[in-house]
Known about the structure:
By secondary structure, the protein is mainly α. The chain has helices spanning 3-16, 23-36, 40-53, 57-80. It has one domain (3-80). It is globular, with a radius of gyration of 12 Å.
Amino acid sequence: MDETEESGIWTAFEEVAPNLCYIAKTRETLSDLVSRSGSMGSLLESIRSLMVSVENPSFRTDLKILGERLQRLSKRTLLER
Length: 81
């Protein structure tokens, strides 16, 4: 991922942060996933995969909220190209 894409990801996180129960845990998880993902598509897939294995329903909801916001960012970015 390039710097612009990463910046957009963190901006999206900041936008949804007030709606999250586990802000620090979600930030840490996102940081880990961004460092291992080469593209927005692989990041979104990693979030979806993680959601399936997370037992805590509130954290799973946090990942869902973040994933949906990143999906909208991804679609908007594709439309701008």
